[in-house]
Amino acid sequence: MNMKLTHTLIAALYLLLSATAWAEQVVWTDRIVAVVNDDVITETEFRKQFANVLKQVRAQTERLPPEDVLRTQVLERMILARLQLQLAEKSGLKIDDTSLDRAVEGIAKQNNFSMQEFRRALDREGYDYGDFREDLRRDMTVARLRQREVENRINITEQEVDHFLTTQATQGSAEAEYRLAHILIAVPEGSSPAHVSAYEQEARAIIERLQQGADFAAVAMEKSSGAKALEGGDLGWRKLGQLPTLFADEAQRMKIGEISQPIRSPSGFHIIKLIEKRNVKEERSVIQQTLARHILVRPRSATEGNEARLRIERLYQRLANGEDFAALATANSDDKASAINGGDLGWVSPNMMVPEFEEKMNEVAKGAFSKPFESRFGWHIVQVLDRRDHDNTEEMRRDKARALLRERRIEEEYQLWLRRLRDEAFVEIRTPTQEPANSPLSHAGEAPAKSPLPLAGAG
User: Fold this and answer.
1) CA-to-CA distance for 398 and 403, rounded, in angstroms?
2) Do the Cβ atoms of 224 and 70 come closer than 8 Å?
3) 298-313: per-residue pLDDT in tens?
4) By the 8 A CB rule, do 284 and 396 touch?
């Protein structure tokens, strides 16, 4: 073999092996910034998330918090997300590819994009499509976990709805909406009285700073442990019932621009600012109801769909020949609950029935009956006896109150659940985070073992 060629091959092989070894070294020496139970968060993961958050924060405000503070906020969010994903995995909760594909298609459709256009739009934003899918899968997993662990356990009673509506009527606040900003100075569980006092003094120092003209959003990004800290603490517009119970009474007493004194809760000391307040006039709701009755014929088995269709067509012919609808429904309908009343469904409001049934019912003239049609339950004939306009303002008011109370309860319980999840986990932060110079913990001699959980009963 040519000696010169041999040297060239050896050199090339050396370079290839060196490059491979270097690549492996990069993979294996990706620094760990946090240990979360039996998992880790690497510096590469953190840098990527930090860059995304920094981009969002810069779009919201020009006054950025110190970088070390922002890093702490981002890392704590990542820790909470990782803990939830770990719990989901242990309990077998997974988002399959079919569900994920449907969700991606839904997002594209909401933005009036075809899938190809959507992928191009992601490319323009510098977002890898594969990364987008996996980020969405994680978000869907956490949402489903929250639903299972918290939302499904929340029940709002009629007595609670009654009390809420009575309180609103007494306070004259039913139509009011509030826009609050929020800062939480978190107090770890088990803190000594001296430390609780130190955290309270920190909250009061922040209030003094705000009253002297400091920007609330910038201070929230810098100091708050609340879930909305990176959004400047802005909770957005909320009706009184949507506000955490802790804030509702305080918000009603405040003037526009006013900043509260520290509000104590199990999670720490809260500071709120009333940014804006508005009254939204409640409009009366009038809906069209239909008085209807029907005959249902269900297939006896998966292979008897045609037989069911023939049976309903024979019943339709008997109706066309003048036989009584109620008598035929009582004798033949497979909907036993309505059959005993001649197929009577009562007054039907919009969205009470499955869409395919409601669509056909709405096409039928008053006093007439439909031709046979199929729904997910079987074959139907529906007769429309009457129609009316119905004022359902009171029902709508109760539905809204129930939804507001449920939303409030879910948020409060979710934050408490997150706190327990965080407190029970093993978390070791490898990247040291320096306390701000004016923090009361800088020289307290007793730092909490875990960084405070971003818990904002207010988001």
Assistant:
1) 9
2) no
3) 988 766 768 899 999 9
4) no
